[in-house]
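Hi V.,

Quick status before I head out on leave. The structure for the redesign project is tokenized and pasted below; the design run finished overnight.
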């Protein structure tokens, strides 16, 4: 039996259950004993109804652990391997994977929508009924079963907390800058929203060679962190109009590349507007399903030769990008320890959501 944090309904605190039965892995699956799990904004988005959840569901999708058992046919990892969990398992064979767009993998997509693993069913039960698993993972559990293609091997000496963060916020944020966007050395980049993901966009932009990085947030603690991660200009959106400020800082041209990393209609509009003619606006934050974009098609987009690009999971190829990020971390070029504001226990997950709502912290990380 395992302990897990279970969402039972919208706006309900997660229930800590210790009666969770976790099956053995089936063919193509692995059992992972969790080492650590980050608490990401998308977990909160499930709780508050921004994203749809098939309840009861074990939340958590940003995790790392040790493989305990493998199902039939699994050769990519073995018991004892340390792995980062990719909540977008990438099959390598579908239409998208064949075009190096594994972040859009058809198998992963089906699993995401089902609340189960690749076949749509789940391996956890509690109180006599099945539990869904968020994003084919469910990392708010001492033990979980995931598709083997969602397990990415990492070195044994990598801190589990750091490995966990790579699985979502780091891949997404750095990937937005290094994969989704085209940042040229010397570029001016604007980042709207400096939370766990936005800070990684900032360091990705720095690695890509951006000279000016304008960080925009409403929270001074986040802006201070943004500076630590490489921002060269700080804009408090609660005090200053961020679009006017970016224009002022760029001879009224706008940023070469801008990122929205919150998921609000208003900040998405600001991000597109603060992007220069010929530039790129990259949308990373996950908005509510009912948020619509209305743009002046001619003056806002066509005449401006402006690109607006959606970014899902940092356009990552997890088997290539995870080792690359571990390498950058080991060389001291990627700050990961600094993202961890608090180390908590599974029982404290609801308080981690409260802390996230205040905007005061980058990441709370559960250790098991
Ligand atoms: N203007 C500027 N900054 C804002 C505004 C606003 N109107 N509203 C919120 N913010 C800031 C918050 O202060 C916080 O620092 O946006 C940041 C959001 O950070 P987190 O809550 O830590 O969220 P994060 O985990 O980084 O995720 C951001 O990316 O992957 C998606 O689902 C995720 O949509 C979410 C987004
Ligand atoms: Zn996440
Ligand atoms: Zn695929």
């Amino acid at each position: 039996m395992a302990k897990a944090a279970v969402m039972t309904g919208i706006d309900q605190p997660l229930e800590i259950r210790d009666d969770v039965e976790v099956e053995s892995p089936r063919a193509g699956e692995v059992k992972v004993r969790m080492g650590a799990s980050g608490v990401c904004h998308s977990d909160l988005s499930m709780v508050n109804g921004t994203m749809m959840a098939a309840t009861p569901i074990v939340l958590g999708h940003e995790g790392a652990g040790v493989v305990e058992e493998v199902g039939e046919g699994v050769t990519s990892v073995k018991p004892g391997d340390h792995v980062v969990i990719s909540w977008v398992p990438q099959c390598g064979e579908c239409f998208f994977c064949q075009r190096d767009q594994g972040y859009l993998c058809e198998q992963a997509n089906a699993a995401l929508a089902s609340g189960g693993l690749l076949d749509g069913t789940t391996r956890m039960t509690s109180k006599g009924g099945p539990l869904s698993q968020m994003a084919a993972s469910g990392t708010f559990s001492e033990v979980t079963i995931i598709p083997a293609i969602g397990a990415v091997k990492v070195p044994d000496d990598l801190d589990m907390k750091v490995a966990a963060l790579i699985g979502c916020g780091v891949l997404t944020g750095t990937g937005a800058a290094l994969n989704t966007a085209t940042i040229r050395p010397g570029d001016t980049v604007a980042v709207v929203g400096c939370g766990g993901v936005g800070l990684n966009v900032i360091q990705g932009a720095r690695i890509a060679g951006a000279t000016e990085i304008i960080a925009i947030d409403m929270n001074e603690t986040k802006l201070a962190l943004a500076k630590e991660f490489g921002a060269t200009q700080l804009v408090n959106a609660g005090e200053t109009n961020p679009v006017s400020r970016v224009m002022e800082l760029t001879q009224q041209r706008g940023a070469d590349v801008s990122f929205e990393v919150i998921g609000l209609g208003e900040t998405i509009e600001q991000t597109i507007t603060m992007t220069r003619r010929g530039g790129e606006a990259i949308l990373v934050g996950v908005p509510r399903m009912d948020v619509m974009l209305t743009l002046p098609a001619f003056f806002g987009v066509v005449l401006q030769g402006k690109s607006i690009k959606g970014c899902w999971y940092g356009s990552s190829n997890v088997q290539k990008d995870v080792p690359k990020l571990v390498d950058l971390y080991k060389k001291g070029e990627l700050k990961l320890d600094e993202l961890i504001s608090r180390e908590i226990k599974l029982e404290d997950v609801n308080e981690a959501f409260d802390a996230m709502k205040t905007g005061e912290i980058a990441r709370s990380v559960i250790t098991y």
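Above is the designed sequence. The radius of gyration is 20 Å.

G. will cover questions while I'm gone.

Best,
W.
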